[in-house]
């Protein structure tokens, strides 16, 4: 019976040791699982934060892009309106009554005489008869809405008093006030 007792003691010891090993393994497994769950939770939170940040940035880019598109559309519409106003103003200049045009040309000739007392005068074909008594030699027709171009006899002075050039000068210098009137002060 002594041998049976020794075998039983060894078996009991082995059982106790295996239970202790299993308990330690279970405890370590629980700790590893808990640490892994914590890491997974932290990783999930980090990825969620990155995703939220990416979404926020994407929304901001889309919003900025939409605002830029709206601004471009508004500016294009404003440019179209200004172009139409410019075009209509040219049409009105072209449609001036002959008497009004004659009066304006007379004033332009008087202004030109101060700098160029003698020389050639050029005007549109439709206005040629309005400048015949200007005191200048008629130099020919030019493709303009109206007005005159006067060149000194020696060609050293060239005055451009055409409606076209005056319109462009006035238009360029008045663009901001015209825009402010049409679209409100910005």
Automatic annotation (TrEMBL):
Its main location: membrane. The keyword Transport applies. It holds the Pfam family vATP-synt_E. SUPFAM superfamilies: V-type ATPase subunit E-like. It is found in: Cell membrane. Gene3D superfamilies: ATP synthase, E subunit, C-terminal. It is a peripheral membrane protein. The keyword Transferase does not apply. Keywords: ATP synthesis, Cell membrane, Hydrogen ion transport, Ion transport, Membrane, Transport. One of its GO terms (biological process) is proton motive force-driven plasma membrane ATP synthesis. GO terms for cellular component: plasma membrane; proton-transporting two-sector ATPase complex, catalytic domain. GO terms for molecular function: ATP binding; proton-transporting ATP synthase activity, rotational mechanism; proton-transporting ATPase activity, rotational mechanism. Has multiple subunits with at least A(3), B(3), C, D, E, F, H, I and proteolipid K(x). Component of the A-type ATP synthase that produces ATP from ADP in the presence of a proton gradient across the membrane. Belongs to the V-ATPase E subunit family. This is A-type ATP synthase subunit E. The gene is atpE.
